[in-house]
Amino acid sequence: MVTCAACGTVAEEGSKFCEQCGTPLGAPAAVAEVPVVVVPDEPVAPAACRACGGTIADDGYCESCGEKAVSERDHWSELPSALVGGVCDRGRRKSRNEDAMALALSGTTAVLVVCDGVSNVPDSDIASLTAARAARDVLVTGSAGSTVGAWSALLVTATAAADQAIADAVGDTSGRDEPPSCTFVAAVVDGPTVVAAWLGDSRVYWLPDEGAAHQVSVDDSAANEMIARGVPRAKAEASREGHAITRWLGPDAETVVPSTGTTRAQGPGWVLACSDGLWNYCSEATDVADLLHRTITQVGSAPDVVAAELVRWANEQGGHDNITAALARVAAPVDTVHTDEAVPADRPSDLAPPAR
Amino acid sequence: MADFRTEVFQNEFLSDGATDVHAIVTVTSSGAGTAATSSGGVAEIVIIDTSGSMSGPNIDAAKYAAQVAVDQIADGTWFSIIGGSHVANRAFPYPNAPVAIVQMEPGAREEAKRAISYMRPSGGTAMSTWLRLADAIFAEVPQVAQKHAILLTDGRNESEPRAELSSAIYDVTGHFQCDARGVGSSWEVAELREIATALLGTVDLIRNPADIAADFKALVAESMSKGVADAELRVWAPQGAQVLFVRRVAPTVEDLTSRRTEVNALTGAYPTGAWGDESRDYHVAVRVPSKPVGSEQLAARVQIAVGGDVLASGLVKARWSDDSSLTARINPEVAHYTGQAELASVIQEGLAAKASGDEATATVKLGRAVQLAAETGNEEATSRLRRVVEIDDEEQGTVRLKRNTDKLDEMALDTASTKTTRVRR
C-alpha cells in the first residue's frame, strides 16, 4: 500500500502522484514520526553551558564563562520531525519561563500548541506546560484528510482537555486572587489545510514562500477591541492596557471554547505559532514573513534552527517577555502537476522541503 | 576538621555597560581546633634582638618576655630561640647541641629559660641573617605544617643594605609565618611591615619594654590556638575577565593581588596562613565584559581551600539592569572597606610626606584620613590621628600638623594604619 507523504491519502498501486494533492509518490516519506521531546517537569541543569559549551558546576554556573545554567524549563527546543520544530525561551527580562509549547507530527499532520502563562502569577508556568501537552495529546488523535469542521471540533475538544489538565495540575486555585492561567493557541497543519484555535493573544500566522502572509488567529485582546473601535494597530498594541487579554484558560476562565480560523495554502510556506514575546517586536504578518525569510536565508530551513534564530532575534530586541516560536512547513501542494516535471529548475532552493 | 563558611556582600546589579564587580566575602572558620590537634604539629621560633642598642631595660624585658613565651609554648611543640645582631646565633638548643630544634617538655622548658638568661647584647643589626637562620632551623622539621616565628627588635636594620633584608624576606616567604614587634621609637616601621606582610603576620609597636611579655604571651597563645595550618583563598573569574584586586580588609588591610599563584587558567590562589576559630573579610574586585541588560552571570567564585580541598565557596554575581534604583545602590560593606583601605594608605602616605618635610602633602593626606576615619566609624584611628594633627573640621578633613609630636605616636599611627573596624550590622 502506498500512502501520500504529504496528505496521507492511500494511492492506487503504480501511481506516480497522489490523486488528492499531487505530491510525487514513491519517494520515501520525508518525514518520519519522531518521538516527542520530553521536557522534565522539574528544572534540571543541563550538563553543558549554552553560551560556551563549558561544564556547569554544582553551583549552577558555567565553570569557564560564568554563564548561569539554563534549566530545561527556561529554554528548550523540540523537533518532532524535519518539518516541525520550535523553541521556547525565558527571554531576558523575566525571571522564569511561563511560556510553553507542545509539538508533534502525527502521520503527516503537524500539531503546534503554544501557551503563554499569565505573567508572575504563581503556577502559571505549570498551567501553560500542562495545557499545551494535553491539547497536543488530543490533537495527535485526529486523522489526516479530515474536514475543516472535524478538525475544528477536535480543537475545541483539545482546548477543553487543556483546561481540565490545568485544573488537575494546579488543583482548585480559583479562590486565589490570581489563579494560574494562560493563553492558548493550537494549529493543525493537514496537507495544505491549516486550522487554528485560540484563547488570548498567542498567534498563528500563515507565511507563504510567495504571496501575501496573514495572521490566522485573531487576538482576544483589549488591543483588538481598541482596533475595532478605530485605534491604529501600532498605537493599540503599544498601549498599556492593550496587552490585557479578554479570554484565557484556567480556573477563572469564563469560557474555554476557543475561536477557530482556517486557511488553505495555495503554495509552500510556513505556519508559525508564537507568543507575544516574539510578535511584540514584529506584529504585522508581512513583517513576520520578511523576518522569517531573512532568517531562513541566514541559517537554512531546519525548523528548530529557524525558531532558535527567531528567539535569538527577539532577545536581541530586548527579550522583555518569554518567547516561543513554533514552525511547521507546508510542502508544495501542487494541484496541477501531471507530468514528471514537477519541480521547475528555477525554483529557489529554500522552497524545497528542508533537509537536515 | 574545621568548618569554613563564606558570606558574600555585594550589589550584583550593574548598569548597562558597567564592567566592574565588587564584593566583600566574609570567611568564617569554626571547629578549627588548636595547634595541638593540628596534623603535622607546630614549630615556634622566638627571635630576640641582641644588638648593642638593646643594652639596659630593653634586653632585660626582652629576655623576660622570651621566657614567658617559652612558658606558653605547649608541650610537644617544636621550638628554638634565636638571638640576633649583625649575625644570628641560636641560643637554644645550645649552639653546640646536635639538633637545631627540639620538642617542648618540662626539662627543655627549664633549660631554654636558662639559655635565654645567658643572652648578652652586642654588635649591630642585620635582620636578614635572623630570618635565614630561622628558615634553616624550620627546614629541620619538614613534617611540621604550621611554622611560626616572633621577631623583636628595637632598632633599624643598620648593618646591611636594605636589599639584603628584602632578598631574605623573598627567599623565606611561604616557609613560615612571622609576627614582628618593635620596642621603643628607634626601629623602622617600614622594615618590620615588609617582614610581617610577606610572612602573613602582624606588625606592632610596643611602647614600654615592660609590655613585651604580655604581647609575647598573647602572640604565642594566638599561634597555639590555630588548628588549621595553612589555608588559601582561591578566586575563580570567568574566561575573559580580569581580577582587579584581592585584598584582605579585616582584621587588617593587606593587598594580596600580587601574591597570586595559579591553580588553573581561571583560578588563582592567595595565601592566608594559619586559621583558628575566626572571621576575616576579603574584598574582591573583578572586571567582566559587559553584557546586555537582563543578563546574569557569575563574576567570581571565592573559595577557601585547605590542602588542595575546597571547603567553602562564595558566589559573586553580576546582573545587568536598566533599573537605576537597583544599580545605583552602593553595598555598605563594599563602601566601608573601600574607605578603610584608603584610610590605611593615606595615613602611611601622610606620615611619609611628613617625615620627608613635605608638610603640604602631609596635611592633605592626614586630613583625608581624619575624614575617612570619621566616615567609616573607625574611632581608634581618629584618636591616634588626634595625637599627630589638630582637627579643625572632621567632616571636611581640615587639619593642621601638630608641632613637637611624640615619635611614638606617629609610629603607633603608622603601625595601626591597616587595622580596620567591621561594618556595623
TrEMBL record, chain A:
Q: What is this protein called?
A: PPM-type phosphatase domain-containing protein
Residues annotated as domain PPM-type phosphatase:
83-330
- Cite the Gene3D superfamilies for this sequence: PPM-type phosphatase domain
Entry superkingdom: Bacteria
InterPro entries linked to this entry:
DZR, PPM-type-like_dom_sf, PPM-type_phosphatase-like_dom
Q: Name one Pfam family in it.
A: PP2C_2
Q: Which SUPFAM superfamilies match?
A: PP2C-like (SSF81606)
TrEMBL record, chain B:
Coiled-coil segments on the chain, per record: none
Q: Which residues form the VWFA domain?
A: 43-228
Query: What domain of life?
Result: Bacteria
Q: Which CDD domains match?
A: vWFA
Pfam family name, one: VWA_3_C
Q: Which SMART domains match?
A: VWA (SM00327)
Tell me the protein's name: VWA domain-containing protein
